[in-house]
């Protein structure tokens, strides 16, 4: 554990966390046994921060994660989940899969936006029940930018989470999003402890540097970076011509930049994914990086890359080449 997320909480996060979306059968099915092997690999690699959400597999991720964590000493790990999407009955959904959201699970429930105080309290209570835990350390509002009224959702959710934090129901509050405007608004409010910045603060691109990071600096709000491999583009030493970016094939200019970054890493003997994992930790308010995988070997590799000694000359050359900000 290192520095606390914000001056408004005593919660600190380990440098590397496991993002548990894959436990919800993201993109492919996992057996319960395979899911537990993934989590055992994370634990054995020293990972002690686990992030999940009701959205991930319509509760499957939370249930599988909870089954695992109940076998571990509660004071030895940190767990975060998300609020804003309730799971409500979906009659007839047992005959369908949640493929519109890329999860291979029966759609027996569906998501319903709710950032009200009652909705957030209910969401946390249901998450605790699914996981079988007695507390959640950190609660993030999940993608309020995708809800019907993003700013209203963020403001209402911030107040609701503050109330729950004062009650001791959670230790810290935050918002997770890919939308820099919402993230900057959340940081500027001074009412949150953490921002989960997904894909907007990476070795490849840093749009969050314009408004989000300065706002977090001003208010002492910690940042957790996610999707640091940019949909897998930075997950291999050679990005490759068929590399994916966001929800499709990587545009030529994006692929060219990733390839140039890979070349600099290669010249310094540093694996590209290791640089991708460690880069954001160099940015002031960043407290942790969350990475997910459904493969135990990849999780062990991520932990090794996070501990790899990277020469300062690598960052200096990337900056000199205009590939990262100075």
Can you tell me about this structure?
- With 326 residues, this protein is of the alpha/beta class.
- It has one domain (16-228, 285-316): Alpha-Beta Barrel (TIM Barrel), CATH 3.20.20.100.
- Helices cover 37% and strands 18% of the residues.
- The chain has 10 helices and 12 strands.
- It has helices at 32-44, 60-69, 117-131, 150-167, 180-189, 212-219, 252-267, 272-279, 296-307, 312-320; strands at residues 16-19, 49-51, 78-83, 85-89, 109-113, 136-142, 170-177, 194-198, 222-226, 244-245, 248-249, 286-291.
- Helix 1 links the parallel strand 1 and strand 2.
- Helix 1 packs parallel to helix 9 (296-307), helix 5 packs parallel to helix 6 and helix 8 (272-279) packs across helix 9 (296-307).
- It starts with 15 loop residues before the first strand and ends in a 6-residue tail after the last helix.
- The model has no long low-confidence stretch (mean pLDDT 96).
Radius of gyration: 19 Å
CATH top level class name: Alpha Beta
Task: Kindly report the CATH topology.
Answer: TIM Barrel
Q: Give the proportion of residues in helices.
A: 25-40%
């Amino acid at each position: 554990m290192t520095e606390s997320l914000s001056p408004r909480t005593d919660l600190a996060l380990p440098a590397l966390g496991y993002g548990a979306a894959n436990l919800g059968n993201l993109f492919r099915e996992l057996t319960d046994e395979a899911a537990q092997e993934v989590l055992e690999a994370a634990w054995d690699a020293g990972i002690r921060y686990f992030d999940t959400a009701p959205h991930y597999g319509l509760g499957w991720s939370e249930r599988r994660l909870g089954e695992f964590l109940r076998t571990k000493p509660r004071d030895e790990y940190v767990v975060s989940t998300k609020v804003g999407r309730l799971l409500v009955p979906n009659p007839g959904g047992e005959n369908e899969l949640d493929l519109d959201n890329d999860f291979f699970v029966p759609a027996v429930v569906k998501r319903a936006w709710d950032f009200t105080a009652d909705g957030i309290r209910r969401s946390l209570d249901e998450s605790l029940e699914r996981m079988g835990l007695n507390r959640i350390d950190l609660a993030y509002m999940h993608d309020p930018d995708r809800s019907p009224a993003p700013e209203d959702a963020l403001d209402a959710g911030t107040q609701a989470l503050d109330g729950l934090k004062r009650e001791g129901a959670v230790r810290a509050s935050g918002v997770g999003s890919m939308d820099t405007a919402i993230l900057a608004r959340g940081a500027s409010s001074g009412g949150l402890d953490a921002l989960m910045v997904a894909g907007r603060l990476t070795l490849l691109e840093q749009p969050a540097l314009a408004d989000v990071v300065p706002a977090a600096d001003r208010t002492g709000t910690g940042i957790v970076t996610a999707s640091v491999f940019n949909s897998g583009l930075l997950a291999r030493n050679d990005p490759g011509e068929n590399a994916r970016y966001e929800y499709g094939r990587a545009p030529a200019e994006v692929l060219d930049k990733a390839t140039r970054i890979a070349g600099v890493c290669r010249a310094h003997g540093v694996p590209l994914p290791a640089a991708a994992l460690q880069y954001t930790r160099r940015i002031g308010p960043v407290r942790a990086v969350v990475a997910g995988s459904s493969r135990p070997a990849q999780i062990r590799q991520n932990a090794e890359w996070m501990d790899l000694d990277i020469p300062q000359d690598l960052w200096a050359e990337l900056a000199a080449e205009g590939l990262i900000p100075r």
